[in-house]
Amino acid sequence: MTSSSIIKVKLTIFKNILLRTSKTKLLFFFILAMFLLGGLFALLYYGLKYFEVSSPFGPYLSERLFSFFFMTLLVMLIFSNLINSYTTLYSSKENEYLLTLPLDHHWIFSVKFIESTLLSSWALMLLAIPLVITMGFLKNLPLSFYLRSASLLSIFIFIPASLGILLAITLASLFPKKRERALLFGILILLLPFCLFFIRYYRVDPRADSHIFLYRILDGLAFASSPLLPNHWLVKGMSEDYLYYLLLLGSNALMGFYLSLLIAKRLYYPSWSKWHSAETGEKGYLGASWIESLFQGMNPAIKAIIVKDIKTFFREPTLWGQLLLFLGLLLIYLPSLKDIGGPLYTLFYRHFIITLNIGGVGLILSTLNTRFVFPIFSLEGMRFWMIRLSRLEAPTLILIKFVSSSILCLVTTLTFFILTNITLRTPPFMSLISYSIILLMSLAMSGLSLGLGVLFSNLKVDNPTVVVSGLGGTINGVLCLIYVILVEVLVGLPVFLHLAGYLKTSLYHILLGFSFMGILLLSLGFCLIPLRLGIRALKEMEF
Amino acid sequence: MIKAVALTKKFGELVAVNAIDLDIEEGEIFGFLGPNGAGKTTTIKLLTGLLKPTSGQAFIGGYDIQLEYKQAKHLIGYLPETPYLYEKLTGFEFLNFVADLYSLDNFTKKRIPQLLETFNLFQNKDHLIEGYSYGMRQKLVLSSLLLHNPKVIIIDEPMSGLDPKSSKIVKNILKELAQEGVTILISTHILALAQELCHRIGVIDEGRLIALGTIDELKALVKRSDSLEEIFLELTR
Ligand SMILES: Nc1ncnc2c1ncn2[C@@H]1O[C@H](COP(=O)(O)OP(=O)(O)OP(=O)(O)O)[C@@H](O)[C@H]1O
Ligand SMILES: [Mg+2]
User: Fold this and answer.
1) Is the pLDDT of residue A263 over 70?
2) Where are the domains of chain B?
3) Minimum distance, in Å, between the CA of residue B116 and any CA atom of chain A
4) What is this structure's pTM?
5) Residue ranges per domain, chain A?
6) Among A366, A375, A377, A405, which residue's Cα sits nearest to residue A473?
7) What is the ipTM of this complex?
8) pLDDT at A270
């Protein structure tokens, strides 16, 4: 009775939202989503097809890559489940309401478990669609392949969900008073083993022959195919022994759910109560006036906003904590670059490493921007009337946010890149190019996320998770991803062509120049178009 | 019906609720007064089982709110300080949802339109709650907590935001319910309301219950015969 009622009510909410969204808007979303997914599919399909044809290791590579993709998916799912379930279980107002009703605590927990699993997984599952279709097309697989994949995937998501939720409950019980630090701790726990894996396996050895070089990368990806990992069962089950792997995934998912239910029965309500009994009287640090004096002579309204933003940023450990954490993890990986010394230190090797780093940093930037920059406007929006009182123009406000978030992105990633270039002893010319690319990426992704944040603003909520996991947030994430992929392709092209034997050294610099121009144009487009659209939308908004 | 035994809640160093003993009879309307930050909301959260007490116990209708929470909560209708509502539901859908959560039968559900009518919400019943005004929300939550015929009603700040007519309606409902044997606990800053409705009053300050009794008893306590306002100011000086 009660179980069906909560499902019914969630469906009603969904229906009400859909019914009251304009049809053109829905159609626009749909077309956009199709376009993005289609683009991703095309990129994957033709990219991998090229590999299969041009290299003897091709088929092998794409198999490894799929395992690796799903491994990444697994890690990302654990992350988003951890973060989402933490907010859904502990800080959501709905639970406070449900807890006053005569409902079993573990019943409330189960409802939230399913809700947070769906909330955390749907966007990533959408991304898995082009992946699966690519797989099917590359191997000309029959329709049953897609059905099998769909069923496997829908069971698969419950494994990272259980892990994420178990972690969330454990952390909330262990650190009820240090909410943000708890989250950070969890992320650390998750990231460290992943990175150690990476360091151990990802030692690229660029020995002359390009095929062997490729082979080395293959080796590096091998850890993703460990038979102990659920992503491996997933990929395996898609091609062979369907029933076996289905049962393997299913029993593990059930066990995960059962385990978290067992733990929730004992821990959920006590930890919820503790979480809501945090200590009072926390002083706002950084109250000092020296911050204000840094911006002397500025328009007082602009100064007030900047100072407020700086204070908010530093008083929100989740934010700077994540930046620090990412930076720290990148730094762990630096030393592993160093021990390949001597004659192997070619320009191409450096270029290759820089290409990899740009990809990695790009992924981190796109997560951070989607998670933190995209919801800025929605969260600020509720207090927007106050800022409006200061007679600041809407574009000024957006530009302030744009500049500060770009600076933040830049500072973090630049530190990492300067260190990499010192480690690699990169020549100044190439260092300069890498710095410029980082600058462009920071600008592009901040502009994109801010602009989309205004376009898809949701002023009704104060929970960033809801803003981020909405359609706008997903589109933002996907666009960031596409941007990173495009940049990666452009940066990697010269070195790739060289390795494949198509490019003479003399042409290398010219092609590098073209790549750079391409990135410049691409970044300007990704930055300015959404920003302008956002500013225009803002001018027309009413408060 | 409502009982607290040495109920204590600490937030870190701060003792928000300090060894409070309460015993509220069936059919009684009990007023809970105290300055801002005195610990009223915290006490109520302990009584409704939302927070776990640091020590002490709370009972509703004889059930321990921590151990037999389902039975105890079945008896309670609770209006929190800042109630939660599903913004994307209509008022009517919300009440039906609440009825389902309490496993109410279809016969009881028939009361929904009637309740909406009582609170002047019927013409808005098919509008999304996100469009409701503050007072309308308050009234919707009130109707939702009356739906399952609770034996104990606990209200944190009931009248703020209600227009004179609505607050008159609410007052009458509460009086009627008390006559039917429902126990009511009201935390409020509106002293006139307390004076009009409550049989007994408890005054809490800095987590301690500093006075408890009928208005006459309180008058005797401070040796003044003025309004409740004077008594209150004297007590919490
Ligand atoms: N979740 C919490 N975590 C930490 N401290 C809290 C929490 N809730 C309340 N407090 C503190 O406990 C004390 C009592 O708060 P409470 O909300 O019970 O007061 P109140 O009597 O309801 O006040 P008001 O009349 O303003 O509603 C206050 O000092 C408050 O700061
Ligand atoms: Mg209160």
Assistant:
1) yes
2) 2-75+151-236, 83-149
3) 19
4) 0.77
5) 47-282+316-338, 346-543
6) A375
7) 0.90
8) 92
